[in-house]
């Protein structure tokens, strides 16, 4: 079975122009989830970037997640929060938004980290970097997790090509390979077609 697609925005995006680019990408392939990266933005700049992207993502049928900010996720009407911190940060977000919102966490760099996170009430566990190049060790971890546990695995393969192997993960997260392409929408379409090809 093909994984569902999870899109990660670049950590540096122009609030004035990126919404249009994002809309084109979301219209080119069936993405189930969208993570709006915070990068190094301060609270005000991140809120300014995220507000239109939440609307774009939800209008395209995506569950939109805010990075590490439960209060902002609530204020913008997002669907959830992706937590990049450890168990204490995850617990704080869970207390703030569950059961109304999705909470995911990661990346989980080791089996121990994955199992520790999996004992919390998270909706998915993330393996691999949010951007940059692919990580073979993360792919191995995602494959092990997906074969062993019920909480869905998200394999992040930032540099994915159309020959990507989702390794049994329920979700495949895409980022750098889409945004660095000359035509991001065409890149997303090609990856999606390759994943669903018989």
SSE-based structural type: alpha/beta
Question: How large is the radius of gyration?
Answer: 16 Å
Beta-strand portion reads 15-25%
Mean pLDDT over the full residue set:
93
CA distance, first residue to last residue: 10 Å
The number of helical runs is 8
The main β sheet shows up as:
8 strands, parallel, barrel
Report the oligomer. Answer: single chain
Shape category: globular
Total strands: the figure is 8
Characterise the protein shown here:
This protein has 198 residues and is of the alpha/beta class. It has helices spanning 18-28, 43-59, 70-76, 87-97, 111-118, 136-148, 176-179, 184-196, and strands at residues 4-8, 31-36, 63-67, 80-83, 102-105, 124-127, 153-156, 171-174. It contains eight helices and eight strands; from the N terminus they run E-H-E-H-E-H-E-H-E-H-E-H-E-E-H-H. An eight-stranded parallel beta barrel has the order 1-2-3-4-5-6-7-8, surrounded by five helices.
């Amino acid at each position: 079975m093909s994984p569902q697609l999870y899109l990660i925005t670049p950590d540096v995006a122009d609030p004035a122009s990126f919404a249009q680019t994002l809309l084109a990408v979301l219209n080119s392939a069936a993405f189930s989830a969208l993570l709006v990266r915070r990068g190094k933005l301060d609270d005000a700049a991140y809120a300014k970037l995220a507000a239109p992207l939440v609307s774009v993502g939800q209008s395209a049928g995506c569950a939109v997640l805010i990075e590490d900010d439960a209060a902002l996720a609530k204020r913008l009407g997002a669907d959830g929060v992706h937590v990049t911190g450890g168990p204490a940060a995850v617990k704080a977000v869970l207390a703030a938004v569950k059961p109304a919102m999705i909470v995911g966490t990661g990346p989980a760099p080791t089996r121990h980290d994955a199992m520790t996170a999996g004992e919390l009430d998270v909706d998915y566990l993330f393996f691999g970097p949010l951007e940059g190049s692919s990580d073979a060790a993360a792919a191995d971890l995602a494959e092990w997790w997906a074969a062993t546990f019920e909480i869905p695995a998200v394999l992040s393969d930032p540099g994915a090509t159309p020959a990507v192997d989702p390794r049994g993960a329920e979700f495949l997260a895409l980022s750098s390979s889409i945004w660095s392409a000359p035509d991001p929408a065409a890149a997303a379409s090609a990856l999606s077609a390759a994943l669903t090809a018989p």
